[in-house]
UniProtKB/TrEMBL annotation:
SUPFAM superfamilies: Protein kinase-like (PK-like) (SSF56112). Residues 7-263 form the Protein kinase domain. Its EC number is 2.7.11.1. This is non-specific serine/threonine protein kinase. It comes from Graphocephala atropunctata.
Length: 470
């Protein structure tokens, strides 16, 4: 389907609060761009929010920030064109409950800090840093995206306190729940939670408030024997104690984080994800972790909650002619787009190389199965029923799955059953919720379907040839 005479819509990359993100490719030069499609008629409130997002994003130019290319409006539909990041989302690199190796987490952390440092130098605070909003390009370089909650906190050298309740609760700093708050420390706190997720494969708490037991244990230094902290070494804990300090004024600056031994140390690469040495005693770990720095001046106060959609009721499989209903706001109000993906030149000519095109569709949450599409769909919904997951299907071959994750937040994702030149592909894509929880559900689903999962490398050239990868 042509978007214009020179651009083709190739696939849907993700969904957001006000519409979808599409991958579009220029037929002449092979340039790939992520196109956010916003239905302004269905979401009239989007106009002001999107214009603010654009005003901020267009100011930015940094290797670790997704590039903004432009916008256009046709009737009641708005389009925003952004850099395409073919490496996918950071959460896809994190194994649930395990994480990733320290050397890899260190590399991504340094890149994240570099991007955030640039934002703060421009007087911009992101306020929704999390693995779902951190993308990877073809060189595995991390790039920050989704500036729907970003704002200017410093202008002409004058800094203002912020008052808006926004973010994704596990990644939000405690002072956001108390109001008002300084800008830079809240992004630094979020970077710390991202590091916890990378090192352990989980977030440490649902939200950092006094009613949360997990947070209180951390705050009172009663955390050594509980997850995720017991999975980490002393040096990582030492750094995190300084980043995740409840007092914003005592929190490490980005410059100080970069100087910490964990960031400087050369972490050795091992064969598998690094799991903590269980022989480290809690007492020794506490001695080496260096508790919070002495408190200093600053404010905390304010609060945020995320509305949850009700679980879908009965399963619905519509007739062949039925269409999926228009998208509503699946994402938390803390973000414009949960799965925003970015852009890049794929080639200097229209006949793009197969190797580059294979990178174009890289995503970990998909696999081929040995059944035809109809039988594969039957097995999929059977597995969903066995896992007690609520699902519905309005469009043939597409199933929307809804559940409540372990943090009692709604998780929504889609499964597409695709015929790829006599091979059947099951592709899963997050719509709303935590990327780690989505990955956890995907892995359990794959286990339920293990007897039909095809072994061996995936033939992505087939997917490209048929233009059917969602």
């Amino acid at each position: 389907m042509d978007f214009t005479a020179d651009w083709m819509i190739m696939q849907t990359l993700g969904e957001g609060a006000y519409g979808e993100v599409k991958l579009v490719i220029n037929k002449n030069d092979g340039m790939a761009v992520a196109m956010k499609v916003i239905n302004l008629q269905e979401h009239p409130e989007a106009s002001v929010n999107v214009q603010k997002e654009i005003a901020i994003h267009r100011m930015l130019s940094d290797p670790h920030i997704i590039k903004y290319f432009g916008q256009r409006t046709e009737g009641s539909v708005g389009y925003i064109f952004l850099e395409y990041a073919p490496g996918g989302e950071l959460f896809d690199k994190i194994e649930p409950d395990v994480g990733m190796e320290s050397w890899e987490a260190q590399r991504y952390m340094k890149q994240l800090l570099s991007g955030v440092e640039y934002l703060h130098s421009k007087g911009i605070v992101h306020r929704d840093l999390k693995p779902e909003n951190l993308l990877l390009d073809e060189h595995d370089k991390l790039k920050i995206t989704d500036f729907g909650m970003a704002t200017v906190f410093r202008s002409r050298g004058k800094e203002r306190l912020l008052d808006k309740k926004c973010g994704t609760s596990p990644y939000m700093a405690p002072e956001i729940f108390l109001r008002p708050y300084r800008a830079e420390p809240v992004d630094i706190w979020s970077c710390g939670i991202v590091l916890v997720a990378m090192l352990s494969g989980e977030v440490p708490w649902e939200r950092p408030v006094t009613t949360c037991v997990d947070y209180i244990k951390w705050k009172s230094s009663d955390y050594m024997s509980v997850s995720p902290w017991k999975k980490m070494d002393n040096l990582a804990i030492s750094l995190l104690r300084r980043i995740l300090n409840p007092m914003p004024s005592a929190r490490l600056s980005i410059a100080k984080i970069k100087q910490h031994r964990w960031c400087i140390k050369r972490h050795m690469q091992t064969k598998g994800p690094e799991i903590l040495d269980r022989s480290i005693s809690p007492a020794y770990k506490r001695l080496k972790s260096n508790d919070f720095s002495p408190p200093s001046r600053d404010d905390p106060r304010q609060c945020h909650s995320q509305p949850e959609l009700l679980l879908s009721g009965p399963h619905i499989i519509s007739p062949t002619g039925a269409k999926e209903p228009a998208h509503v706001s699946f994402s938390q109000p803390a973000q414009i787009d949960d799965m925003l993906v970015s852009t890049q030149y794929l080639a200097t000519q229209s006949n793009t190389s197969q190797d580059t095109m294979q990178k174009l569709v890289r995503r970990m949450t998909r696999f081929f199965v040995s059944l035809d599409p109809d039988k594969a769909l039957d097995r999929l919904v059977q597995a969903l029923d066995n896992m007690a997951l609520s699902w519905r299907s309005y469009t043939p071959g597409i199933v929307t799955i809804t559940t409540i994750d372990k943090h009692k937040n709604q998780l929504t994702f889609k499964a597409s059953v695709l015929d790829m030149d006599k091979q059947t592909l099951l592709d899963f894509r997050l719509s709303k919720g935590c990327g780690l929880e989505f990955k956890r559900q995907f892995m359990m689903l794959r286990k339920h379907l293990s007897d039909i999962v095809m072994k061996g490398p995936v033939s992505w050239s087939i997917a490209i040839a048929t233009n059917n990868v969602p």
